[in-house]
Amino acid sequence: MSEQTKHAEHEHHIVGPMVYVAILLALLVGTALTVWASFLELGPWNPIIALAIATAKATLVVLFFMHVKYSTKLTKLTVVAGIFTFLILVSMTLADYISRAWGSW
Fold this sequence. Notes:
Elements: H1 3-9, H2 17-39, H3 45-65, H4 73-98
Helix pairs in contact: 2-3
């Protein structure tokens, strides 16, 4: 391998402290939004809004605190495969829940 290829393999991206402060503030705003939304009477939309806010916060954590944003394509593929597997398991659970004959016994 050439010297340039070896150097490129071990190069790391340095994230400045201001990025972490911005992410912290975004997570705090997300937490405040979650608390605020919990006091609103939105009927069946309450859990949907709470899950949307939680998904946005989890995305920030995965991208920045777990350094997936600056990782290799293989790491990103691994994260996507994990999310895909999670979605398959949730859809199978919901399919079982919806297909039950509630109240017929």
